[in-house]
Amino acid sequence: MSHSLQQEILSIIGKTKEIHMNQLDMFEALSNYGIDSLDMINILFDIQDRYDIEISEASIDNKEWSTVDKILYQLKLRGVCNELTEKELIRE
Amino acid sequence: MIGIRNIGGYIPERRDDNFAKAHKYALDRAFIEKKIGIVATARKGDDQCASDMCKLALLDLQKRDSNCLDNVDCICVCTQNGDYQLPQTSAVLHQKLNLPIECAAFDISLGCSGYIYALHIMRGFMLENQFRKGLLFTADPYSTIISDNDKNTDLLFGDAATVTLLTDNPIYEVGKGSFGTFGDKHAALIKRNAEKLFMNGREIFNFVMTYAPILVNQCLANNKVVKEDIDLFLVHQASKYVVEKLAQRISVLPEKMPFCATNYGNTVSSSVPLLLHRYFEDSHYHKLLLCGFGVGLSMSATMLRRL
């Protein structure tokens, strides 16, 4: 797992909602940390902006960006990160 | 020079209480209060049309300037929900105000960016024809086109009207405008013929956060000022969240970019002039930057300088 990318994602989330990195479970839905739909729009906007990618409405509806791990996986699919996500590391 | 002499506004007394709708939309009070920022939306009377609301805005203007209707050369109504499909609402209003046949009357079909567009169109039209006095109305009663089961729009939009008196003896000079259109995103906020209004909130949020800062910076540069020179940024009151995030994105202090629509909602083309109405008589505000964005998707910005 790319540590710096993970840090960046956590920092983007932290900008919208004050959550300490240590409190965040990578596999827990962000909504369970009090991140509401508007916060999520803002987080995904920042991710799009930062990594110059497009996030489709359908992928959000399908909850493909709903946890930190899923966000990292989606970024990997788009070539932002070439390393394995934590889930994949666990599977390995 | 043609600029803004005065401004009047009308917000219907009737309100829809958003807290009362919280349960229906599975939202908590804090989300409505702190994020949407709109606790009530203004609702016109069932028998009221855009032109009726314009007339009531004019009554407010007359309290500030009793002679505002004398020798009016032209009127313009900015609306996308006029009294009829045709004729133009400005013609209906022309009759309701008993204006003379020499008075020009036309509509402009734009939404949340409309006021700034209309200011520049009116100024150009008046200068071109050597007119000295014009009235620019905004009225877009969205309550007629929103579904009361759509939380994306039902909790946001409110009804209101404004009128801006433009004369050759202004209090605020209108600076250089900046405009933009993203026609490929027109379906993000659309009312198809028999349907109710549809809004893709995320797409509009992305559009605003990406392009509004660029347009604002362009407008500042066109007017040869920097953002620190601006006393107030009066931006379209889409929602509290949008205004707060935009302030962050432009790096402007929240108090310089106020959100004031808590008790009446997003009033489309009336949103920016209602803000202007609120601050108009305070002479501390010398330089104002106005910015509107929405239906189109379209955006506009301009600068006002107190003389």
Helix and strand composition category of chain B: alpha+beta
- What is the tally of beta strands of chain A? 0
Head-to-tail CA distance between termini of chain A? 12 Å
Tell me the fraction of residues in β-strands of chain B, as a range: 15-25%
Enumerate how many helices of chain A there are, as a single number: 5
Give the topology string of chain B: H per helix, E per strand.
EEHHEHEHEHEHEEEEEHEHHEE
Key structural traits:
heterodimer, A: 92 residues, mainly alpha, globular, B: 307 residues, alpha+beta, ten-stranded mixed sheet, two-stranded antiparallel sheet, 14 strands, 31% helix
Report what the structure shows.
The complex is a heterodimer of chains A (92) and B (307). With 92 residues, chain A is mostly helical. Chain A has 5 helices and no strands. In chain A, 54% of the residues lie in helices and 0% in strands. The longest helix of chain A has 15 residues, at 37-51. The two termini of chain A are 12 Å apart. The mean pLDDT of chain A is 82. Chain B is an alpha+beta fold and 307 residues long. In chain B, 31% of the residues lie in helices and 23% in strands. Chain B has 9 helices and 14 strands. In chain B, helix 3 (50-64) crosses helix 4 and helix 7 packs across helix 8. The N and C termini of chain B lie close together (11 Å). Chains A and B meet through helix 2 of A and helix 7 of B.
